[in-house]
Amino acid sequence: MTDLVLDAQDAACPPTGMPALAAACHPLSRQALDLQIALRRSRLGELEAQMIAACETAAIGAHVPCVARADRDHWDRAAWHRYLAAAMRLEATYGTRMRHLRRQIAQLERLAALGLGA
User: Fold this and answer.
1) Rounded to 10 degrees, what is the CA torsion of 95, 102, 73, 82?
2) Does residue 88 sit within a domain?
3) Number of domain units in the chain
4) Which of 5, 59, 97, 118 could cross-link to 83 by cystine, CB 3.0-4.6 Å?
């Protein structure tokens, strides 16, 4: 669990002069952990959407309407090959960050399951 960093700024903590609220905002509180999980899931979703859009663009072109991109039932074999080739190329760009976020999410979920700050 050495690569997990809890962002205190992301936890939206109150000023330190409010002890009751500050306790709920401890980096291991349930609220802080849930927020950190949500932030990382959001970042992961953004990365996944960017990668999918780039793969779709490679598969059928940039000038095709979004509706046609989403209609994968009508893609031909060549379009699917271009999509998969783009996914393999883009893995180097997106894969490392996506795996890192997934590991962090799993670690945070394990911490939340312990119920330390419930």
Assistant:
1) 0
2) yes
3) 1
4) 59
CA-to-CA separations, 8 to 32, 80, 104, in angstroms, rounded:
8, 43, 15
Q: What domain range is 65 assigned to?
A: 9-113
pTM exceeds 0.85 for this model:
no
Q: Please check whether residue 1 lies inside any domain of the structure.
A: no
Residue 4 lies inside a defined structural domain of this protein = no
The DSSP code sequence of the chain is -TT----TGGGTPPPTT-HHHHHHTSTTBHHHHHHHHHHHHHHHHHHHHHHHHHHHHHHH-TTS-HHHHH-GGG--HHHHHHHHHHHHHHIIIIIHHHHHHHHHHHHHHHHHHHTTB-
Q: What percent of the chain has pLDDT over 70?
A: 69
Q: What is the pLDDT of residues 14-34, one digit of tens each?
A: 555 545 545 556 777 888 899
Distance CA(89)–CA(93), nearest Å, equals 8
